[in-house]
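Q: I'm writing up a methods section and want to include an example of the input and output format. Could you take the sequence below and give the corresponding predicted structure tokens, formatted cleanly so I can copy it straight into the document?
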Amino acid sequence: MAHTILLVQPAANPETRTYSDYESVNECMEGVCKIYEEHLKRRNPNTPTITYDISQLFDFVDQLADLSCLVYQKSTNTYAPYNKDWIKEKIYILLRQAAGHTE
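A: Here is the clean output for your methods example:
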């Protein structure tokens, strides 16, 4: 359980930057999924049930101007930065586990 800060910049304009903090990396990855789900709801307000696959989620992540995480490292009492590719890898692992396909 490492405190994790999610940094999001949806558009090129720096004023679109926001951050959220989470108690763990997994909670943060769930937060990224929720951001995408909210995006889908805004784009499809009259659709009662929205489904998507992981490639659509990853395309959304890729089109964000910036997305990164800062994960607390207890051993050094610092935060380590991670990029979009790391985030996508962690989301993939989380969703596989959620689907019951653990290795």
